[in-house]
Design a protein that fits this description.
single chain; 19 helices; disordered N terminus
Length: 494
């Protein structure tokens, strides 16, 4: 096997590698989050909600097609214990062909997108965005190789550079009066810089595709994963499609920005940690006890960071919207709060995908999608008659009370990690976060806060204080804090 693709050496010092890799990626995501939040604050004041709605109408459709540029083959490359140059080359050309195919399909369907929404401008947006699929398709395997070899620092610089370039291009275009085209320019810039960075930083170059390469098992792995991703995407974006179709660009723009604003800080934790956790867990699947221990320790830290964060954002949703988006976006505060109900458990639910992928249970993953996404889709349909706020309310409650418990049960039926392990691990953070939420609501009902900025400061301080007190009072919480501090100690220079 080519030593450039060998990963056995990575299992040595796995804990330290995991902590350092996680820290690098989280820091990079925080930097990306800052850039994205800053650009959102500027763009929300330069553009109209309708501009964001037009972009969301197109991306709700084209994003479904974008799933086919990967076809699950990046995860197959990361998860597979051994892989050869011939296999990688074959997968590269498969992804490149898929990117070109998706580009052509987008071009062909652009008029249909405009017809569906009754908005002629959407056809030109879709045509312009189609080129991003080809650009992204040729970067899939290079990015997968960087993750396979846990080169998280390199990935961090690539991602930050791409977001910075996109933010600069988008804000510059909006400032010059480009309107909704500024959002198109931003997305194209991100795709171009991310692809260029992956090729520059991982010097592997593909050979010719080999018909005899043993990639059938990888294609099967990717097929099931793609089936899940397609169903998941449809359920997650059915709200965008239907709100845009029934209620128009204005309502969709408010809903879409509120949703992205809520998910932005959560994704800055869950997405980079997934990039670290999946390669690490894939290397230790043959050691069930070690696998279970590693997963639960990562899960515990995600819960401690994200659950209090969501509680803080839900309790101060109106202040956040006023500061970040400005006075034209008042309605987004209510939508933001209702979606926060779903977000409270979403960062935990997202980690179940690691279990499916690293245990090669993509068939189970696809079957779950048939169940879970049907529930999510029905919730969106039920809430649609009441507009964007109705969709957010019904979806948030259904996600937290029905879909998430079913998911934990389903993923825990097989493998080293069971549902009770998940509940036991996240319980301290969940209890502490709920106590903080009640405390902030109590203060808001008793004390009149003079300004949103003061309100955010009070809310953040109270949330942090209550969470630390509750965790310190619980035996399992004290253990979690102690382990958290131990993990941070590994980040100190040797």
């Amino acid at each position: 096997m080519n030593p450039d693709f060998e990963t056995d050496r990575l299992t040595a010092g796995l804990r330290e590698r995991a902590v350092r890799g996680g820290a690098v990626t989280v820091i990079s995501q925080l930097a990306r989050s800052g850039l994205q939040m800053a650009s959102m604050m500027v763009l929300a004041r330069l553009l109209l909600p309708q501009d964001f709605g037009l972009m969301a109408m197109v991306t709700a459709i084209t994003g479904f097609l974008a799933v086919f540029t990967d076809l699950g083959l990046s995860m197959a490359t990361i998860q597979r214990p051994e892989i050869s140059h011939v296999q990688l080359s074959t997968l590269f050309w498969v992804n490149a062909a898929l990117g070109a195919g998706v580009m052509l399909v987008t071009v062909a369907t652009a008029p249909a997108i405009a017809w569906f929404y009754g908005e002629p401008r959407l056809a030109w947006i879709a045509l312009t965005l189609s080129g991003a699929f080809l650009v992204s398709g040729i970067a899939v395997q290079h990015q997968a190789l960087l993750r396979r070899h846990m080169r998280f620092g390199v990935l961090a610089w690539i991602e930050i550079s791409a977001v910075a370039a996109g933010a600069a291009a988008g804000v510059g275009s909006a400032w010059s009066g480009a309107g909704y085209w500024a959002l198109v320019v931003m997305q194209l810039a991100v795709a171009a810089v991310a692809t260029a960075g992956a090729w520059l930083m991982y010097r592997w170059r593909p050979g010719r595709p080999a018909p005899g390469a043993d990639v059938r098992s990888m294609l099967a792995f990717g097929r099931n994963l793609t089936g899940f991703n397609l169903l998941n995407y449809l359920a997650r974006h059915l709200d965008d499609i239907l709100i845009g179709r029934v209620w128009g660009a204005q309502s969709l723009g408010v809903y879409d920005v509120a949703y992205r604003m809520l998910l932005l800080p959560i994704q800055q934790i869950s997405t980079p940690v997934a990039g670290v956790a999946i390669p690490i867990l894939s290397r230790i699947t043959d050691a069930p006890a070690r696998y279970r221990h590693a997963y639960l320790r990562i899960l515990e830290k995600i819960a401690i960071v994200t659950m209090p964060g969501v509680a803080f954002m839900v309790a101060s949703s109106d202040w956040l919207v006023a500061i970040v988006l400005g006075p034209r976006w008042t309605e987004a505060g209510t939508i933001f709060a209702f979606l926060g109900i779903a977000a409270f458990t979403q960062s935990i639910s997202n980690t179940t995908g690691w279990l499916f992928i690293t245990q090669a249970r993509t068939r189970d993953m696809f079957r779950w999608a048939l169940i879970g996404e049907t529930i999510a889709g029905l919730a969106i349909l039920i809430g649609l008659p009441w507009g964007a706020v109705g969709v957010a309310a019904v979806y948030g409650l259904t996600e937290a009370l029905i879909r998430t418990p079913l998911l934990y049960w389903y993923v825990g039926r097989k493998g080293p990690v069971q549902a009770r392990d998940i509940y036991r691990t996240v319980a301290p953070a969940a209890v502490a976060s709920l106590c903080a939420l009640l405390a902030v609501f109590g203060i808001r009902s008793w004390v009149e806060i003079p300004s949103p900025h003061i309100g955010l400061a009070v809310s953040f301080s109270l949330t942090a204080g209550v969470v630390l007190v509750v965790l310190s009072a619980l035996p399992s919480g004290r253990l979690a804090l102690r382990d958290f501090r131990g993990s941070l100690a590994l980040l100190k220079p040797r």
